[in-house]
Amino acid sequence: MTNLEKITLETQMAIRGVGGQWEITTEEVLGENCIVFKNRHRNIGEMLKANTSQWAKRECLVLGDNRISYKEMQDRVESTAYRLQSMYGIKKGNRVAILAANCPEWVVSFFAATQIGAIVSALNGWWTETEIGHAIELTDPSVIIGDTRRLARAGSLLNEFPVVDIEDSPDFFEPTGEKAIEIVLDEDDPALILFTSGTTGKSKGALLSHRSLIGFVDGTIHNGYEKKLIALKLLDIDPSTLPSNQDVVLATSPLFHISGLPAGVLMNLANGAKIIFRSGRFDPADVLRLIEEERITNWTAIGDMGPRVMTHNDFASRDTSSLTRVSSGGAHLSENMQQLIAEHFPQAAGAIGQGYGSSESCAVITSIGGQDFKDHPSSAGRACLGVEIEIRDTENNPVPDGEEGEIHVRSAYSMLKYWGNPQATTETLKSGRWLAMGDIGKMIDGRLYINSRARDMIIKSGENIYPVEIEHRLESHPDIHEVAVLGVDHMQKGQEVKAVVVLTPSGKFEIDVFIEWCKETLAGYKIPDHWEHRIDPLPRTASGKVIKGGLTGDREVSDYED
């Protein structure tokens, strides 16, 4: 046993064992025996009160000049919950829809609604009228809370529902001292509907319980705490000698997404962090300003946010030294991206990491960071505590290590169901509450390797081609800012490979150069047959994934499109 393995085992036994800070036990959850933390909050309201009492005087939520302390947020939540009950008759199980940009009122509305047993329907703020209409009709909310711009986009359908406009009714969220009638809540009562990205067809609403969201928080904090302890022991540093400073988190992920509310807000509130929001479209110059002025310590850059900030003209003139944790979401962090982060944020190089999960799983399934990420840069990491992973073939049978198949997971925290869609629930949530992730992957030495979305796989002349492998190679070229690889129909071969490229500001679109670059590491059949140069950024979902269906449309494919 290596020294690292010995320290890891000792640390896990100390913090997870009887009397440990993260003591674990096995309990029946929805008919299945699952590993859970023994000492845990039983509902979201209970968790919030524990946080706000511990960190009462600290700043909590910041948007521009609006700076709210933990104590003030709790007071706002109590009063808003009272108004939801008294003015709109919200009862346990009713839906409260939120259609707004990231702001303190979004967070207050979420806690207020779930405190009285309502289910928050988190509507995608980027949706069109048709998409908003589908989600509203599906979840039938008793009230809709939103901002003026997004409510206007919802159209005439809103005439059928009570609406609270955040900008027109700021008093609705002000503290008054009034409190809602207490509601008895069970851990497995539903709390939140998160909608899938909807890259094909209509979005589905994953229904998450209080247990799901609290489990996300506890599991993620435990994972980080364990890794920190192990690292300190390897360096022979006593954790008690380290300063206990407040984290300052830049929350650019939308709150209607798993990386926004559970990861960006709930987890950081439990750590007593200060959460910084910003308004308007993503602006790399403004992000750099906030990192400098607010002394941001933590930032999760989904999609192309990281590259846009690191390549911005203001980067060199801004002080980004406070940023000690940079993570990724939406897609696997390529080796090239890891190197870029290490170069631009050297103080965060040792803490670069990522997690793998989904709205449906809620819990972080695997995570990886530090030296393990450097040693295994193409891996998604090992299973997090309490999560089981199986790789299955097309007949739903488990396959041995090293063989590819669809990733299935099970934990106490997976979604309850898809709201109003029993057929999709049955297809995704299988016997024994095993959740089909829709991703293709394999397990090697306890680590998960994800090859591509199953629906993205290209089959060319009988050969399986995974776009992510080609994308990572092309994104490492200095002239390429971002790229999407997809299959296009071919009469004889079935499909051919197409690369859609967005260049860096000084990049040149030279197909022969890119082909030679690919040939250095990729087999010939994987080299793109078609190339397209785009000026605008690639279309992405709220989670940062490229919407490949939005790249095809009705455009005619040629050997070269510019």
Describe it for me?
The protein folds into four domains: 1-39, no CATH class; 44-56 and 68-209, Rossmann fold, CATH 3.40.50.980; 359-455, Luciferase, Domain 3 (Luciferase, domain 3); 457-561, ANL, C-terminal domain (GMP Synthetase, Chain A, domain 3), CATH 3.30.300.30. Helix 1 packs across helix 7 and helix 3 packs across helix 4 (104-115). The longest helix has 25 residues, at 210-234. By secondary structure, the chain is of the alpha/beta class. The termini are far apart. The strands form five sheets. Strands 3, 4, 11, 12, 13, 14, 15, 16, 17, 18, 19, 21, 22 and 23 form a 14-stranded mixed sheet that branches. Strands 8-7-5-6-9-10-20 form a seven-stranded mixed sheet, sandwiched between helices. It is globular, with a radius of gyration of 24 Å. The chain contains 16 helices and 29 strands.
Architecture blueprint of SSEs:
Layout: H1 3-16, E1 24-29, E2 32-37, H2 44-54, E3 59-63, E4 66-69, H3 70-88, E5 95-99, H4 104-115, E6 119-122, H5 129-139, E7 143-146, H6 148-153, E8 163-165, E9 190-195, E10 205-209, H7 210-234, E11 248-250, H8 261-270, E12 274-277, H9 284-294, E13 298-302, H10 305-310, E14 325-329, H11 335-344, E15 353-356, E16 366-369, H12 370-375, E17 381-383, E18 388-392, E19 405-410, E20 417-418, H13 422-428, E21 429-430, E22 434-444, E23 447-453, E24 458-460, E25 463-465, H14 467-475, E26 480-490, E27 494-503, H15 511-519, E28 530-534, H16 549-552, E29 560-561
Parallel strand pairs: 3-12, 5-6, 5-7, 6-9, 7-8, 11-12, 11-13, 13-14, 14-15, 27-28, 28-29
Antiparallel strand pairs: 1-2, 3-4, 9-10, 10-20, 15-16, 16-17, 17-23, 18-19, 19-22, 21-22, 22-23, 24-25, 26-27
Helix pairs in contact: 1-7, 2-3, 2-4, 3-4, 7-8
